[in-house]
């Protein structure tokens, strides 16, 4: 007769021990990332490293850091920009083909909304 204890021992013995092993297919890069520092994926309140990495891959910006020269700024949605002599007014000229993922054109009103929203949220890191 099979006792409860014997059944438990037999069940435990049947379990695979150790970590599962699988090989990554050739030509595939696997990246693991700790995401415990994520506060928000909203770019208007994204201050942590992981949030910024994700947002940087999901959202376009008017301007971005120049990857060839970290002391410079490069265009993204804005093809060019001017700064007033007093450094208080920034004028951005959007690229004509700037579009959201939906295909809808990005307008100056969209950029203005986003910038005003950041100010209204009044968030700090």
Short description:
The protein has helices spanning 4-14, 49-58, 108-121; strands spanning 63-65, 73-75, 78-83, 90-94.
What percent strand? Answer: 5-15%
The parts where pLDDT drops under 50 for at least 5 residues are none
The best one-word shape is elongated
Count, helices: 3
Order of helices and strands: HHEEEEH
| Secondary-structure content class | alpha+beta
- What's the domain count? 2
- Rg measurement, Å: 26 Å
Overall pLDDT confidence? 86
Widest β-sheet, arrangement of strands: 1-2
In this structure, how is the largest beta sheet organized?
A: 2 strands, antiparallel
Q: Compute the number of strand runs.
A: 4
CA distance, first residue to last residue: 66 Å
Helix content: 25-40%
Describe this structure in words.
The protein is of the alpha+beta class. The protein folds into 2 domains: 24-59, no CATH class; 63-125, no CATH class. The protein is 28% helix and 14% strand. The protein contains 3 helices and 4 strands; from the N terminus they run ααββββα. Strands 1-2 form a two-stranded antiparallel ribbon. It has a two-stranded antiparallel sheet with strand order 3-4. A hairpin with a 7-residue loop joins strand 1 (63-65) and strand 2. The chain is elongated, with a radius of gyration of 26 Å. It starts with a helix and ends with a helix.
